[in-house]
Design brief:
This protein is 35% helix and 20% strand. By secondary structure, the protein is α+β, with helices and mostly antiparallel strands. The strands form 3 sheets. A 5-stranded mixed β-sheet has the order 5-6-1-7-8. The relative contact order is 0.13.
Length: 364
């Protein structure tokens, strides 16, 4: 059995997080199809309630398509400050159970609960306790996957959504993976899934049947990852101080912009959004990048690296302004701009230490 089988990992995933916060805070939205975003011509759905998902409305779907699928769809503007505050509240709950917390986004995180801090006897019971606390303290539901590695825990959290949990034990992990479509696997996107299907790989069992040399021939450096997950193997630890490589923000304008001042104002607005995150996280980088996408979808970037950290809002704004001015005046309309800070300094890590994985039957 791999070393990771000794770990007890929970993947917690909030149910339709942004949309659920909106329905919680506005009772008039409850039970109705809700999309977080803007119903503008170039708008994109940031999140969708489960009522909207029954119509095929999903995040990243263009707003016009979402409305075509669900004419009664209610759009509400995003309130990211509220979502961040609720996420922080949820992470405070996590911290009562473990120091080993690895956030993936505002709504999901890995928790290593190998050390039984609360004396709950099993990882299964710990997940139930955490979900009950989240519901009691935030009014929101969460789903959870419990397993001996991160790959399986994340897969498991989808099994009983919404508001449920599922466990994958060491004795069932490899066989369970074989039953799943490869399109569900982390690291297998739509393009890769289509390529795999052309090669006769549609399930975990199909993937496991392929020798490593075959996978290397067709998937290069990703071959080892695919070979391991097809066998339920994932040795990655939960890393509470995973190095953040960048922080960025971008916006799509309602119309293509040609006026220098309007374009510059858009860039500075995105720089301010990025600075808000940097200041809150106390994470500062040395490289600033400005992204530009034109009306014909041509995309360019301009970057500058500094000898010292960009550790003030004024410095970030000035760097962003200089970069966007390097492509102005524009020969054609600009539809999108973005700002990213990268080249962060590494942060010191922490380690943790044993908790039985399960003492109850697997289920919701």
């Amino acid at each position: 059995m791999p070393e990771s089988a000794e770990r007890k990992i929970i993947h917690v995933d909030m149910d339709a997080f942004f949309a659920s916060v909106e329905q919680r805070d506005n009772p008039a939205l409850r039970g109705k199809p809700v999309a977080v975003g803007y119903a503008a011509a170039r708008g994109v759905v940031a999140a969708a309630s489960y009522e909207a998902r029954t119509f095929g409305v999903r995040s990243a779907l263009p707003s016009v398509t979402a409305l075509r699928r669900c004419p009664d769809l209610i759009f509400v503007p995003p309130r990211f400050d509220v979502y961040k505050a609720v996420s922080a509240q949820i992470h405070m709950i996590f911290a009562d159970y473990t120091d080993l917390i690895q956030p993936l986004s505002l709504e999901e995180a890995y928790l290593d609960v190998t050390a039984d801090r609360r004396g709950l006897a099993t990882a299964w019971a710990t997940a139930k306790h955490i979900r009950a606390r989240i519901l009691e303290e935030t009014g929101l539901t969460a789903s959870a996957g419990i397993s001996y590695n991160k790959f399986l825990a994340k897969l498991a959290s989808d099994q009983r959504k919404p508001n449920g949990q599922f466990a994958v034990t060491p004795d069932m992990g490899a066989a369970w993976v074989e039953t799943l479509p490869v399109s569900r696997f982390h690291g297998v996107g739509p393009v890769t899934a289509a390529k795999m299907s052309q090669l006769g790989i549609d399930s975990g069992a199909d993937l496991r049947a392929k020798p490593l040399d075959f996978l290397r021939e067709h998937f290069g450096s990703s071959a080892e990852w695919y070979w391991h997950i097809a066998r339920g193997i994932d040795e990655r630890p939960v890393n509470p101080n995973r190095e953040r490589k960048s922080s960025g923000s971008e916006t799509t304008f309602d119309r293509d912009l040609l006026v220098d001042g309007e374009i510059e104002a858009g860039v500075l607005s995105q720089a301010d959004d990025v600075w808000t995150w940097c200041e809150r996280a106390q994470a500062f980088g040395r490289t600033v990048t400005v992204k530009v996408k034109y009306g014909d979808f041509q995309q360019i970037t301009r970057s500058r690296s500094f000898p010292t950290l960009v550790d003030s809002q004024a410095a970030l704004r000035e760097a962003s302004r200089a970069l966007i001015r390097s492509v102005l005046p524009t020969p054609k309309g600009i539809r999108l701009v973005g700002v990213t800070v990268s080249n962060f300094e590494k942060q010191p890590g922490r380690v943790g230490d044993a908790l039985p994985l399960f003492a109850e039957a697997v289920g919701a």
